[in-house]
Amino acid sequence: MVATTHQQAHEPRRSTRWLNTIERLGNRLPDPFMLFVALAVVVLIASVIFAAVDASVVLPATGENQPIRSLISSEGVRFMLGSMLTNFTGFAPLGLVLSMMLGIGLAEKIGLLDVLIRRTVMSAPRQLVTYTVAFTGIMMNVASDASLILLPPLAAMVYHGLGRHPVAGLALGFASAGAGFTANLLIVGTDALLSGISTEAARLIDPDMVVTPVDNWYFNCLSVVVLTVVAAQISERITEPRLGTYQGEVERVESDEPASAGRGLRNAGIAALLYLGGLATLVLWPDSPLKNDDGGLIPSPFLSGIIPIILLFFITVSVAYGVTTGKIKTSRDVSERMAEAMRDLGGYIVLIFAASQFIAWFGWTHIGSWLAVNGAELLTSINFTGLPVIICYILFTGFMNLLIFSGSAKWALEAPIFVPLFMQLGYHPAFIQMAYRVADSSTNIISPLNPYMVVVLTFIRKYDREAGLGTLISLMLPYTLAFLSLWIVMLVAFYLLGLPFGPGIHALMP
Hints:
Blueprint: H1 5-15, H2 17-27, H3 32-52, E1 56-58, E2 65-67, H4 74-89, H5 92-109, H6 112-122, H7 129-139, H8 147-161, H9 166-179, H10 189-202, H11 217-243, H12 261-284, H13 301-304, H14 306-325, H15 331-343, H16 346-365, H17 367-381, H18 387-400, H19 407-424, H20 429-442, H21 451-460, H22 469-497
Antiparallel strand pairs: 1-2
Helix pairs in contact: 1-22, 3-16, 4-16, 5-10, 5-14, 5-15, 6-7, 6-8, 7-8, 7-9, 7-11, 8-9, 8-21, 9-11, 9-22, 10-19, 11-22, 12-14, 16-19, 17-19, 18-20, 19-20, 20-22
Pfam family, one: ABG_transport
Keywords: Membrane, Transmembrane, Transmembrane helix
InterPro entries: AbgT
């Protein structure tokens, strides 16, 4: 319990012993950029060894015999030098993420997302505050990592104003935004980023395979509803009773939103309705250019162009809000705010340069195909297939999240190995991507390497000066365990019932 000073002072010390070990191990890992550089070197060395023993793999789909190619050869050197730039510029996630951030970054920089979050949470009916905070946190991954530092202090402030324990609100905001990071009713940047990496990995086996940003959409929509209810119940039945009644006082944080924010939100809402209405009209119009040749939407130019459509949506509502509030006075302001958002992605772009080389080298050498085919044959020979191997993979990824926090970095590491491997076992790459996402999201909030845990702990100490990392971990564990368990049950249910994870995407290969 966290209700007494004695327990607050001693319980964290006991609970952080094993976390300190994980933190020390994690801190020994190199920076993600250097990690990919090291992995590329490993692939280079492995390719020489495999080629020296004339290793090869027979692709089950075509019967083609693929020899392992050495990167230290005339052909390999020409490939590494000749493809380095195209590996980077042609890396599928890069353009998708940069495009999404042009729109979402604009909305963030002019303050639209901040004001929208404040108004949504603070105007909720008293009896629905818990559910509103949980729902808002889960939906806030549209703002990427910004959700992890925007919502928790706001939720604490709302709870305090209602006479409830502010740490309970803070914990709920952080847990729903962090552990529920992969779920959303909208198609967001995470969908674009992960599906791009999945496509690159899947093409190691099937050159025509495409994983689109909407392939996990149905599952994510259901997850929003289920996780909102579960997170609210954990908060009301476990977290708040454990914390007890809050007796202290804390300085209120005043909103710095502009006086015209209300009119800005109104005009942004009108712009959103007009945009969506025009889009719906264009989609439903007979002989619409957004439909396929058969008049359908799966697949269609509408789905393949979903990222530009979302980009234009965010630009439209952001401009409407910015002009109304005075945050955008000239067209130059729009480009400057977008440039600010792009500068925030500098670290990601550097990381992608190394990741793109690793994945390209991994594919060119055929080592990925060799591992996938032989790994699938091994699992089949020992009869370790079906749901048990998927559940083991989820648990493995959840553990890896304690050592490598970046979701995109982990998926870039895992996808070239596990996507081809599970494709050989008959699973669609979108299903494996979903398994990865639920494992990665669930353990976000207990990873010692999560940089936002320090920020959230600082917020907690405004209300409990003796709080430590163990305090935060103990608050987050019920959410992690509940989210992970529920997601595994949902994945199993979707698999057994043959339900689609997104438009036309089922658990098994077509």
